[in-house]
Amino acid sequence: MRQMSGNVARAAAIAVVLAVGAVACGPDDSGAKNAGGGSDGKPQKGGTLSVLNNEPQTDFDPARLYTSGGGNVPSLVFRTLTTRNREAGAEGTKVVPDLATDTGKPNADATVWTYTLKDGLKYEDGSPITTADIKYGIERSFAAELSGGAPYLRDWLVGGDKYEGPYKDGGKGLASIETPDAKTIVFHLNKPEGEFPYLATQTQFAPVPKAKDTGTKYESHPVSSGPYKVVKNENDGEHLVLERNPNWSEATDAERKAYPDSIDVRSGLDASVINQRLSASQGPDSAAVTTDTNLGPAELAKVGGDKALAGRVGTGHFGYTNYIAFNPKVKPFDDPKVRQAIAYAVDRSSAVNAVGGSSLAEPATTFLPNQKAFGYTAFDHFPAGASGNAAKAKELLKEAGHADGLTVTLTHSNAKGGPKGPEVATALQDALKKAGITVKLQGLEANDYNDTIQSVSKEPGFFLRGWGADWPSGGPFLAPIFDGRQIVKDGANFNTGLLDDPSVNKEVDEINKLTDLTAAAPRWGALDKKIGEQAVVVPLFHPVYKRLVGKDIKNVVISDWTGVLDISQVAVK
């Protein structure tokens, strides 16, 4: 998330939940097409794809969805100006045109972005898609009753902070979005945003015909611009059935393969049940996938002993970092030497083991994930090795006036098995003890934990935290956590280190001006390295996602944008 106001920062928590859950967590680094059992031969059109999920696909309205790159199931129904490149690995982190002919044309300072629609675009009823529909789709996302989607446009568009949506504007619309003709749309921003093409992948950019808008009821049958249309939506996304949109044209959509004839999405299933059904692959489950359920350590152990099952496991890497957070306003963490001592003392191997081992997590010494798209730059300012550097930690504690050791409290979530849970906290407690640091553990229930660590007034001095990005760039990773202008004193705050360094803030602004994202990436990496010297966080590990697919699933594609099997590429025949 870039240069977020308080409103945007508060919504970031939702983004993280979606990114690591229903949107972007999932299936081997091979990301191979045609992976999975029964995948011999070229994928064919036909058949029904089953999706077995834990969480329902609620709020199936493009205005209300908060997705990464347009989401997974949503992107089958909602096309957007741009989309993620539907390729495996690093190639999948790129932005490519979708409804538009290109990824956007910026003016000199990236405050105005212009898009032109492709020819021959139609809705499910055969009517043409126009830029007026895209403008209207964006405007309705400002309506209070349709809130929940990505909030950047409220911050970025001129006048967006005061706009209340088309149901209250008397037909005036949002002046900062112009549609000079049916194929051209122009966005006027209040500050340079070189990453606007990333934002244009969000479902708020999906077209909505004004005459078909039914407000809060629109989610039950949204008008499709993608390869599938909604024919059933029961219990707010608990059971979704999608069938082919006869007016979708493959000639206008280079990204979505749309192999199955229909897609049946059932939710509310226990995670263990989902994995058991995928493992057994009986009946319809042989042509099933999941978009939100990972394999756990015990299940991976079982898979490891079965060659056929192992061949049906995909591995994905979504941009997410779990870390130790400090509040430098709380003693003794106001002393950089104490923070550095803890950074040296951590045992990343034990922390990784606490969340299931190296199959499910990779040790981290940088805040940015190890992917080129984020601008990853390797560094380790406080080398702890694999199991901690207790001697160096003791040396720093002595310099800080704690030669006889130190007692501190580590706040964590009570959610067992999670990256911020008691297992990771205990691993850190054991590691720091070797350096003479006695750690008392304070566990909090989920809601209380989030309320506490996101409040400037309540924030403890030493706690566990995690962060994921809305798109694969260093901007939505570094700005919310380290830009001093994003400190929110009266709401959900994510700049936990309360860092307000003018040189950091200035560099964020300078990188935001760049429209060459290849040039911007190493700048984000250099900024990560600079911030890391201040030890306001200690990176611990990046998650790895493991997912099982049914034995008849073909064409498994897993990108580094989402880390999950891309449902738009899957075939069942």
Question: Gist?
Answer:
The chain is 25% helix and 17% strand.
How many helices? The count is: 15
- Which structural class do the helices and strands define? alpha+beta
Q: Beta fraction of the residues?
A: 15-25%
Radius of gyration: 24 Å
> Which whole number gives the mean pLDDT?
92
Could you describe the largest sheet, including whether it forms a barrel? 5 strands, mixed
Shape: globular
Distance between the termini: 39 Å
- The percent of residues in helical segments reads 10-25%
Low-confidence stretches: 1-39
Total beta strands: 19
Instruction: Write out the strand line-up for the largest beta sheet, numbering strands in chain order.
Output: 8-9-10-1-11
Keywords: Signal
Organism: Streptomyces melanogenes
Protein name: ABC transporter substrate-binding protein
Pfam families: SBP_bac_5
Describe this structure in words.
It is a single chain. The chain has 573 residues and is α+β, with helices and mostly antiparallel strands. Helix content is 25%, strand content 17%. The protein is built from 15 helices and 19 strands. Strands 8-9-10-1-11 form a five-stranded mixed beta sheet, with no helix packed on it. Strands 4-5-7-6 form a four-stranded antiparallel beta sheet, with helices on one face. Helix 11 links the parallel strand 15 and strand 16. The relative contact order is 0.20.
